[in-house]
Design a protein that fits this description.
The protein is of the alpha/beta class. Helices cover 51% and strands 10% of the residues. It is built from 22 helices and 10 strands. The strands form 2 sheets. The chain has a 6-stranded parallel sheet, with helices on both faces. A hairpin with a 5-residue loop joins β5 (214-216) and β6 (222-226). It starts with 14 loop residues before the first helix and ends with a helix. It binds iron/sulfur cluster (SF4).
Length: 467
């Protein structure tokens, strides 16, 4: 078994092409599908434990909707309260400014080793290479993140960064990097080895960096959720804690937090709650807390009502776990930090041309919207993107022609019936090379079902009489 080699995304490469590499390994594909679907099933079981689940989702959606409608006010309230608690607050317009601020804080204090806990925002800003190029060692302390960091690749899932790797592949990696026993891929053994390795890094780090799950305007406090306690150790030992958050992480009141904490872990991993939900109210005595509030394209989303609800995302990953395309194409095929349905909605806001193929990597089945704990209308937003991309002439000619013809046929009952009759009669007579030729991308991995003798309408009429 050999782990897949990560390939850097090439600008302009389409998702279908990058996914094809993953799809070519059928065994890995089936395993990834099963592993990720298992998380979806765990989520379903935990949801069933909570009779008021739908009411919670509704409440979460309303809180996020309200917050976003008054985002500037809540951010200012949060800043004032965080300052009152003794934290320092910085504002960054984009990734470059964010990286500059973080580097400045570290460089001023002579930091050479940074213990970093999981943060999709800093991944998105490419903070690690930025700091490493300036002589600072960055250690990702979340186990899955450390695994992908060892492999010099980004996470393939926002909650389970190394879900694309088998334990045997992690065993081989740790043998090379940590000197573990050859052939030993026992997860407990490997985790223990990682703990010893990381413990040294924690003790040596001069600063800790975390993301922020929730920033509470009412108090100025921040909440960081992890399962490994790495954020806690990473910030409890060194004298400097930097917390990086997107502007959308703010929530109005402490009372709102319970709604999200009940939804987050259940939706993410099927746990009743994350193992550690750590609250930081200002710096601990003798230490510094710097909070970096980052826009990085979020204001653009705020200004677009049809996409605004995507700012409610709490990064639980449930939409990835349920998405049939994500499960069968792997996270790296998207070429962005946040893959899956929410990633396909967010990425074109940053660079529409570069990510023009992403909104098409969906069946529009709506399962993502159904599982989303904050009720984001993901599949509607993907459809909106498709319309926008088509309007801008960014859809390939073949797809445009098929769409036009399909739209014309579907708008006319007689044409639809005639087309059905024609296809049922013609396809079985055509040579296989033609039916499964280059034009039929759908048929590359699938066999068409046998053509039925009668249309669905005729079958219904035969069984039930005239509709
Ligand atoms: S869009 Fe919804 S389901 Fe997807 S990660 Fe965000 S909160 Fe979770």
């Amino acid at each position: 078994m050999s782990a897949p080699t990560y390939q850097e995304p090439v600008p302009g490469q389409r998702h279908s092409d990058t996914a094809a590499r993953y799809v070519a390994d059928g065994a890995r594909l089936a395993w990834h599908d099963t592993a990720v679907w298992f998380m979806r099933q765990k989520r379903d079981r935990r949801r069933d434990d909570v009779p008021e689940w739908e009411a919670l989702r509704e409440m979460a959606a309303r809180i996020k909707g309200h917050t976003v409608s008054r985002l500037a006010d809540y951010l200012e309230q949060f800043e004032a309260n965080a300052l009152r608690l003794g934290a320092h607050v910085h504002w960054a317009r984009d990734a470059e400014e964010h990286n500059r601020i973080v580097h400045g804080l570290l460089a001023e204090r002579g930091v050479k080793l940074l213990a970093k806990s999981k943060s999709m925002l800093t991944e998105d800003c490419h903070l690690n290479p930025y700091l490493e190029a300036r002589g600072i060692e960055v250690v990702d302390t979340d186990l899955g993140e450390r695994i992908v960091q060892f492999r010099h690749e980004p996470p393939s899932h926002i909650v389970m960064p190394a879900i694309h790797l088998h334990k045997e592949e992690v065993g081989e990696l740790f043998e090379q990097r940590l000197g573990t026993a050859p052939g030993n891929s026992d997860p407990t053994y490997l985790t223990e080895a990682a703990r010893h390795h990381l413990r040294e890094k924690f003790l040596g780090a001069q600063a800790g960096l975390t993301g922020v799950n929730f920033a509470i305007a009412e108090t100025g406090g921040i909440v960081v959720c992890t399962n490994e306690g790495n954020a806690d150790l990473g910030t409890a030992l060194p004298p400097l804690h930097i917390a990086c958050m997107g502007v959308e992480k703010v929530i109005p009141r402490v009372a709102d937090l319970g709604v999200f904490l009940r939804l987050l872990a259940r939706s993410a991993t099927g746990q009743p709650i994350t193992t550690y939900s750590s609250h930081y109210h200002g710096p601990r005595p003798g230490a510094e807390l710097h909070i970096v509030i980052v826009d990085h394209g979020r204001s653009r989303i705020l200004g677009r009502p049809e996409y605004r609800r995507s700012l409610g995302c709490i990064r639980c990953g449930a939409c990835l776990n349920t998405c049939p395309v994500y499960r069968r194409s792997g996270g790296h095929s998207y070429g962005v930090t946040v893959p899956g349905p929410i990633g396909m909605v967010l990425a074109p806001h940053i660079d529409r041309d570069r990510h023009q193929s992403l909104p098409f990597a969906s069946t529009l089945c709506g399962s993502c919207s159904d599982v989303c704990p904050v009720k984001i209308d993901l599949h509607h937003q993907l459809l909106a993107w498709r319309g926008e991309l088509a309007g801008a002439g960014l859809v390939p000619l073949g797809k445009r022609v098929v769409g036009r013809v399909g739209g014309w046929v579907l708008a006319r009952t007689w044409a639809y019936r005639l087309a059905g009759r024609l296809v049922r009669w013609l396809v079985p007579k055509l040579p296989r090379g033609l039916v499964y030729g280059r034009a039929n991308a759908w048929g590359r991995q699938r066999e068409l079902p046998p053509m039925p003798a009668k249309s669905f309408r005729q079958q219904w009429r035969d069984e039930h009489g005239q509709p």
